[in-house]
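Just wondering, does anyone understand these tokens?
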Amino acid sequence: MQLDRYDRQILEVLQQDGRISNQDLADRISLSPSSCLRRLRALEESGLILGYRALLDARRLGLSLMALIHISMDRHTPERFAHFENVVGEIPEVLECLLITGQDADYQLKVVVADMDAYQELLLTRITRIPGVTGVHSSFVLRRVIDKTALPIKGA
């Protein structure tokens, strides 16, 4: 999909405020409400906009410990990886699972839990019990220096 300046502006604004009304969005980018809505629907239908979500405060939910876990697997087969990915996809504490290269690990998980006891429980009773997991290295997040969800929009 070829994006023009209005499309890019719509995407920029929506990444900052996904709850903005169509009227306010149209006003911000200097388009008529009907034209703005037409463009927005086209961006959604193209699959460029995947959805809308609320960002929650983990600490206020009692989730104050974030960890990055590097996982090593015993075999590098599609079946082994698929099984691992399916299992971690069902663990609510796992916020992100990345298949990585350039490390001694195969995956990096970003998890959030209440405290160290909850982390130990997650690690020992769920993650290390997944068939194929042979190594685990944990790092704990002290502070989020940059924490954003907005993607750079080329040409914006």
Helices lie at 5-16, 22-29, 33-45, 78-89, 116-127.
